[in-house]
Each structure stands twice: as structure tokens, then as C-alpha cells.
């Protein structure tokens, strides 16, 4: 035990030293230029962000360095915590949801008064001040392959309720051989996919059929209260998706994201339970879009700006960091980077760049039409979705619990939040 403790202590010390040597913070390393260090959570914008950072650095008296840590191969929260513990906080970093901002509020610089704040409804605010620069609007529900639906005689515009999906899935299942599919849906529930089941899937319970800004179900959950009718509708939705998913991937262990996406891109399923963040993985598919989740009479996809750039108030270059973020909003080069190259959907009212990619187009159409339901899953207690709800979904997918057991276990977890 002493040897293990010594090894653990030594490794922690080495980790801290490595962070001091190459981590965040605002030291310019002796250069005449100030250095802005950015810790990025979103792998899908990594290449475009680095290209823009290089361009910005060349045109301004500052050096912008990008480190990306995200996806299943890098623990972003752990990485950020390590930097904070080592007092090497990046000048700019990404936060998501209430817990992320509240847990880190002592190190955040407010951005109230910045040019972009008045031009968006999606800034993250605390105590009446803006602290989060929205990266872009995202959306999800069930992403569909229209070519397959057309062959099956299904109009995606009609998929606006649970009952409509029941009929659509029956049709697809009956025509599997003719369509060359293995199942109507590509869905995965293993431990590496709890970020989907425990968060995105569960958002249907929290937000289905609600107006953007309506958080009453979320507020009830955080107080340990369950709406039984909504939970019943949610269990029906999950059962429907699971029963119509390719079983080789549905309950397979671990991170099945790549296999889930492959089923969809290979034309083996008509739907995938993911959002527009998979755009880069489905780039060769042109005739695709996003339809509402099969929750009750839900007739809108879920849209929000779930990820935000925050600025450290301990940075030596707070103003330079804010200027870099403002350049994304205010300059042609910045807008091109974020809303063309990175294929993000603009959260700013004055920037109406129509996306060129299929899934971003679906999100943009919902945004400009004012038709969408909120994302509230990111404001549940920290790790409640992934650590608590995710395993219950996996057990249901594996047949280890019944639908009644699924409802009972989730209800018990929520009541435990009192």
C-alpha cells in the first residue's frame, strides 16, 4: 500500500510539473508578443480553430495557442482541473452548463459590455452578467437518411409524434430486406455512450414539448420531484428506440460511437440518435436531416448553444483574450472560421450565414423559424446524467430491467436529489 501511495504521489507531482512546463496560463515565454492559451473541448472545430488562431496571430500583436481535449480519448474536465490545481489556467477555456460555470465562477472574467453580448440570446449569464461566449447553436433529435425514408414511402416532415414514429418504424422493419438495412435506428448505450443516453436522450423528459426558456421540469428534478406522466412518455420513447435499434451495437460494451455512426453512414439504418455534431463523420451523406425525438407530440428538435468560451480572470492578458473572442463575432475572418469552416450555426442575430452542410441547415432552419425545444440536460447536478442515468439506460437496453424497472430506478435517483 505504501509503494502504491508513493507511486501515486510521484505521478501526481510529475503531472503538475508537466502542466507547469507546457500547460495553460498567460506566460509569454519571453516573447515580445503576449500569448493566449486556449483549451478547446470540441474536436470537430480543432482544425478550423487552429487555422484561425494562426491567421489571427499573424495579423495581431499576440500569439494564440490551441490545445484540444475532447471526445472519448481525452478527459476535458480532468485536464481543466489539473490546470486549475497547478495554477496554470488557460486564458480561454470551454465550459458547459450550470455546474461548469458555478463550480468555476471564482476564476471567470465577466464579459458584460463586450460587443457581441447584446447580439445574442445565448450568452451564458450569472447574476445579470455575461460569462460565456456561445460557440454555436447545436441541435438534435433523430438524424435521418432521407434516401432510405423516400424508398420506404416515409415523409420525414410527418415525424412529429411518438405515434408517427411507431408507424414509420413498423414500415422500415417490414421492408428491411428491400431497403438493405439491419434496423431502423443506430443507437448505442455502452458506458462510453452515457453522454448520449444520460444527457441528450434524457433531455426529452426535461424539455420535450416545452418552449425555449421553460425550465420547470428541470427545476423540479433538481428539487427531487418527478412528473409521472412525462416519465411514462419518456420510457415509451426509449423502449421504442431500443426495440428498433441494431442489437449488435445497442448494448455492446464501451464506446460504440464509431460503430453507431458506421451503421448510419453505410446505409444500414435509416436513423441515428445523434445531433449535428456528427457532421464531420457524415460529410459524404448529402440527403440527411434532423427530425424531432419520438417523445409524445414533440414536433420540434432540441436547439441550444451548449458550449461556451470563458475567460480566466487570473490571466495576464484578459483584454487580449476578450479581443480574440470578439474577433470571431466581429470580423469576416472570424465569422468564416466559426460559421463556414467549422460549420457551426451562428448564435448571433446579426450574423445570418446559411450553413452549407445538411445537419447544420436543419438546425439553422429551426433557429430562424423560432421552432425548437430547449436543452436543459446540462443544468442537472454535475455528473447526474452520465454517472447515474446512463447505467440505467444501458441496463434497460440489455434487458436486465423492464420498462417499469427503468421508470422506478430513474424516479428513485431523482427523488434522491432532495
CATH architecture identity of the largest domain: 3-Layer(aba) Sandwich
Straight-line distance between termini: 38 Å
* Main pleated-sheet profile: 6 strands, mixed
Strand order of the largest sheet: 2-1-3-12-5-4
Tell me the name of the CATH class of the largest domain: Alpha Beta
Q: Averaging pLDDT over every residue, what do you get? A: 91
The DSSP helix count reads 18
Stretches where pLDDT is under 50 for at least 5 consecutive residues are: 1-24, 26-30
Helix-and-strand structural type = alpha/beta
- Whole-number total of structural domains: 2
CATH topology-level fold name of the largest domain: D-Maltodextrin-Binding Protein, domain 2
Radius of gyration over alpha carbons?
22 Å
> Strand fraction band?
5-15%
Net shape = globular
The share of residues in helices is: 40-55%
Strands, total number = 12
Order of helices and strands: HEHEHEHEEEEHHHEHHHHHHEEEEHHHHH
CATH superfamily of the largest domain: Periplasmic binding protein-like II
